Amino acid sequence: MKFFLLKKFSEFLNTQTHFSLKRLNASSFLLETFSKEKHAFVVDLSTPYIGLSKKPPESVLKNTLALDFCLNKFTKNAKILQANIIDNDRILEIKGAKDLAYKSENFILRLEMIPKKANLMILDQEKCVIEAFRFNDRVVKNDILGALPPNIYEHQEEDLGFKGLLDILEKDFLSYQHKELEHKKNQIIKRLNIQKERLKEKLEKLEDPKNLQLEAKELQTQAQLLLTYQHLIHKHESHVVLKDFEDKECAIEIDKSMPLNAFINKKFTLSKKKKQKSQFLHLEEENLKEKIAFKENQINYVKGAQEESVLEMFMPFKNSKIKRPMNGYEVLYYKDFKIGLGKNQKENIKLLQDARANDLWMHVRDIPGSHLIVFCQKNAPKDEVIMELAKMLIKMQKDAFNSYEIDYTQRKFVKIIKGANVIYSKYRTISLKDT
Q1: What is the mean pLDDT of residues 206-210?
Q2: Is the pLDDT of residue 82 over 70?
Q3: Alpha-carbon torsion (177, 32, 113, 84), positive or negative
Q4: Are residues 152 and 12 in the same domain?
Q5: End-to-end Cα distance, the chain
Q6: Does 192 map to a domain?
Q7: 79: β partners
Q8: From which residue to which does any coiled coil extend (predicted)?
Q9: pLDDT of 246 above 90
Q10: How far apart, in whole angstroms, are the C-alpha atoms of residue 107 and residue 257?
Q11: CA gap 340, 328 in Å, rounded
């Protein structure tokens, strides 16, 4: 962030009366200021920069770190006493006061917006470190903050009003937001493409049912011949040539590691398995094709996403130490809700079986396709969450239509007729166009 912008920002803060600060994600924070108007600024320590957001972003983290508790204690609706630039450098200190249980306590919020050294810390009036984003030799908890090397650069100054400042910060935030959105979209699309390619490889490696039937027939013929001529085969023979029922010679290798009877039974069993596999191979092929189409729909949905929060459901599972249970259907997470999505009839049936009475069920009316369950029990999702899930659901459909009607209700009002076919009552409807 340019020095003259940070300096003007400190002057702007002195026109505000109160502020709040909380963490958004691993390295960014939401700084809200209050006076006649409310402003929401995003402070990113990875870049570092400060941007203005018209709509306050939502936190994607459960704030449970020591820094989060400290921010909540000191900076939630705290008074702004004074904001200053320190040592003619990109360091902003906000002196604040917070009314605690029995007294008002003064503190300093220090933002060091120096590239590669960015930091955020809460200090007391004596510059003793209470909490910090990053600790190092200079920043030690419960110790006086160490000095930074003196700034030797001459910062460029520009004449700028508060309106010009806010316009620049808003423009910077939109640019930053777009870059972040595209970066996350590319990451997710790359991962989904890898999953799609793996499914394609499985599809390509599927055996030909005709070849399986021929192999099954050959194994059965060999087993029948061995059974017929068993009395003529010496127990030490590893290779025999027998005439089949059409008087053609048939060469058979014998496994001497097992008795001949066991070897014959093995041939019959293998023949039966290959025959069964050839009969059901089309189902496996159909299942893989459905999964590939589903991945393609997911990729298209991610490509069209306009908000970062929408991508949350396609991000990897947050806690790597906890293994995802094998549900038999697609599982996504959005706004702290577990979402189940069926890709075919089998998965829809399993989804309906797993859902509890108060979970939310959703389906596109009059179109055979995915069922969606929000595993929420009595904690019903907000309307905007339901709307986004409805949009996602129509993107997962196999066939494209101009408009859709999505019905949703609680699982207890959905009755299974046969397979995944259901009737339902006490539902609400969302009408959407596929754009």
Answers
A1: 87
A2: yes
A3: positive
A4: yes
A5: 38
A6: no
A7: 18, 97
A8: 178-209
A9: no
A10: 82
A11: 10
